[in-house]
Design goal:
Layout lengths: L1 H51 L18 H12 L10 E3 L2 E5 L4 E2 L2 E4 L6 E8 L2 E8 L8 E3 L10 E12 L5 E14 L1
Parallel strand pairs: 2-9
Antiparallel strand pairs: 1-4, 2-3, 4-7, 5-6, 5-8, 8-9
Length: 191
């Protein structure tokens, strides 16, 4: 019987020791967590203090009083500032991404615009996604601010839906390609 009491006593001590170890680990984790939270709050607090101080930016510009003498100049400056532009070599397009054609590709609802803010004129080729050597349309050069719409395909296609790629060529004054851009488009031929 005394051996049973010794075994039970050792089992109880093991349980208490295991609980003590778990409590110790939990306490260390809690302390580390508090330290991390304190550091984050300290950093955030110091960032707020810097942001809340009034700052005078060198780039801050004051408005100009408009008079009869400078009204045209101020108007021209406002128009120039509101004109959005795209960085050189980049292209912003406005286009539909599903093009519906009737009669094998004779008439479409397709729409492609070279927005005014672009820096280059553009032309594009439409190719089949799975065979880029198969060019189904070659556009004329679209000047900045120009729109091409309701055009017909150069190749007659059977009725169906085709996954295609529009390859834009941004060109310089001599129509040399500056850069290219590829956009997926769905061509749907009806009738």
């Amino acid at each position: 019987m005394s051996e049973e009491k010794d075994v039970q006593g050792q089992a109880e001590k093991s349980k208490k020791g295991g609980y003590g170890l778990l409590i110790g680990i939990g306490a260390v984790v809690a302390v580390l967590l508090l330290i991390v939270i304190a550091i984050m709050l300290f950093r955030q607090g110091s960032g707020e203090a810097v942001q809340s101080e009034p700052q005078q930016s060198q780039e801050e510009k004051r408005s100009v009083l408009v008079t009869e003498e400078n009204v045209d100049e101020i108007y021209d400056q406002m128009v120039e500032m509101t004109k959005e532009s795209v960085d050189q070599g980049y292209f912003e397009t406005s286009m539909s991404n599903e093009w519906h054609f009737t009669g094998g590709g004779a008439q479409s609802d397709a729409y492609v615009a070279n927005v005014e803010g672009n820096t280059n004129d553009v032309y594009f080729d439409v190719v089949m996604e799975n065979d880029e050597s198969n060019v189904i349309y070659k556009s004329p050069v679209i000047p900045r601010g120009g729109v091409l719409e309701n055009f017909a395909l150069d190749t007659t296609l059977e009725r169906g839906t085709y996954d295609c790629v529009v390859i834009y060529h941004l060109v310089d004054e001599d129509q040399n390609t500056v850069s290219t851009l590829r956009i997926a488009v769905m061509v749907m031929v009806e009738n």
